[in-house]
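Final report, closing paragraph on structural work. Over the funding period we assembled a curated collection of sequence-structure pairs, and we close with a single example.
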Amino acid sequence: MRSWFFCLLLLFSFVTTARAQLLHDVIHAEIELQFPEITILGKTLTVSVVSHELPAEFTGIALQGFTDSDSLSGSVRFLEQDGIWGEWQALYIVRSATDNAFLAAYRGDRVLKASSLEIRFEVDSSYEVRILSAGTFDQRLDDEDGVGQSIHRNEESDDFLIRAPHIRRRTEWGAQPFRGTPIPLNRPSYDYMTLHHTAGFAATTLAEGLEQVRRIQDFHQNGRGWSDIGYQFLMDQEGRLYQGRPFLNESEPFDQGPRLAHGAHAGGANTGNIGISLMGCYHPPEGARCRDEMTFSAIDSLVATFGFMSERYEVPPDNMRGHRDFGSTACPGDNNYRMLSDFMMKVEDLLLRGNNLLGGGTIIARLNQSGIVGLKWEFTADYGIDEFVIRRRERDERVTEITRGEGAVDGSTIDLPSVGQHIYELVALNKSGQQQRLAIDEISVGPEITSVLAQSFPNPTSDETTIRYFLEGESGVVSLEVFDLNGRLVMTGENQHRDSGQWYVTTLDASALPGGVYLYRILVDGFASTVFKATKPLIVLR
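Its predicted structure, as stored:
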């Protein structure tokens, strides 16, 4: 029993210092939890956590934690102002579909005035229960059920620059009915677009996304007591978009911008505020479980979604916000919040050029043993492609153009990237300058274990040829020379200092050489001796 207490004591003392943004979407005040008391009854471990300094009035509590047990149950009781503990009340618990996170809540029919509360969990003694954070809420402060005023609506039009993203409607994820009657979000206008993260309940596949949205609705309705899921939209980690709250008229097509229902995602600032929540945990200070970063596909999808909302609902891109802009929370996580200004610029650009479908295509990137990437692309559809570009994108968002051409023409080429992760993009453009990324492929170039001199390309050549080499170990002065088969020096290339651990590229102009077979040699002189020497053949055609 002492080992259980010591383990859980350390665990609680660590996790209670963190902040769970998932709760901040549903609570009004955070509460501090004291160390747990542990008892064992048969095979059941009971963990009790006491809290002090509660708000003056509240109507319910919510908390977030972790456990691997499938048999978790919990309850809460309150120390009334007369100093008497009330009866134990059952907690409503919702589990994540992809990890061991859970949410729990209690809400009653009366306003609570308590000086302390005690939370108790029962679980098989072979498992742990970890509480991340807890808070109280007061349903009287919720602004999700006001009185509707005038309704502003964009004129329906087919002349939109931004194509509507594909959305998984409520019928697809099996939503429970809205409790009551939805009221308009725009009273009188749509004013903000706000980004959240669920701080857990991550989803990377469609099946996971559908299940997680169901569970989030379950907690918002049955744990928190709201009429429906708090957000208007949600997005998984691969960029799939899900409908949250119902539209005021579910028969209206999404691509025309249906009228949105008032939500419950930014307490006190929900009117005119469109909320979209990324499923996952994007705030590293939460600890090892909270390191998610947005994927390229999710970034593209989020920009397209915000662009769609900006055009249809007339919300300026500079009115994009993070949840923390409306209250005391770290949501949508540091990893996302630092990208908001970049999202605004991308949405502004998207509103100028649009993203209506220009075509379809594929791109394949393959890395060979010499560190050269072979690229092959094909077009599968053409709806007005005037030009195409092949680009390489680095993790730090640097972009390098590899090649471009006119029309939708299939082709292939090579690239000589540095060590690291690289995204290759096939991008189509039309005559008005509209761009659309048709396909991507990703490769990783790792450092070589030895120095390498790669075969020149093209070889044979009648003009320029590209030579690539990798230096491992010691840095030095690199000299490149070309000899004929009699050993006579016929050309000198670069001669400069190079650092080790990198790929380098140099170009030789062979247009002045007679046709024949030559040898090119690389020589690397280190501090005290030659550290690398290699020779490869070069064929010149005339």
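Residues 393 and 399 are 5 Å apart (CA to CA). The first strand starts at residue 29 and ends at 31. We thank the funder for supporting this effort.
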